[in-house]
Amino acid sequence: MAAQDQTTPPTGNPSQLESDQATLAHITQYHLTRCTSSPIYAFVLGDATNPLIRFTSARKGIFTARLRLAPQHLNSSGSIHGGVSATLVDWAGGLAIAAWDLRGSTGVSVDINISYLSGARLGDEVEVEGRVEKVGGSLAFTEVRVFKIDEATGSRGAVVATGRHTKFVREKK
């Protein structure tokens, strides 16, 4: 059997994989110390005194978190705002890279794209899944999916948005 390529993450649904406590602790701390200092992330995800996002699982290069939609997450039609979905893709792409090898810096965005597939409304809970596709010497590639949570079962329902996020990750020497 060939050894797994060290640049690609393990496969599987994070909710079906055992969470790694060190990775979960790292991305939680990274979020609290780095992400909440960004005004846009604090507005969408809350801050240390009023967290809106709740991490549910993490392991090498993969994590999930849940967010209950509040008024600041909605557009004028009462559905999740496209800018909020784009912010979630940006945020989760970076955190997936942090989950890859417990790094303290996740680089800068090179490319980001989002597809909007369905909606979610005030009070709905969404699950964000950030996943590394590949981390190389200079670039990291991630995929992010946002799911609406079925209130009756607590499990994933419709996909609200999907995105890909590429980041320049080579550190200065």
TrEMBL record:
InterPro entries listed in its UniProt record: ACOT13, HOTDOG_ACOT, HotDog_dom_sf, PAAI_dom, Thioestr_dom
Gene3D superfamilies named among the record's database cross-references: Hotdog Thioesterase (3.10.129.10)
Coiled-coil regions listed: none
UniProt keywords, alphabetically: Hydrolase
Domain HotDog ACOT-type, residue spans: 59-173
PROSITE patterns in the record: HOTDOG_ACOT (PS51770)
GO molecular function annotations of the record: fatty acyl-CoA hydrolase activity
Protein name: Thioesterase/thiol ester dehydrase-isomerase
Organism the protein comes from: Parathielavia appendiculata
Lineage: Eukaryota, Fungi, Dikarya, Ascomycota, Pezizomycotina
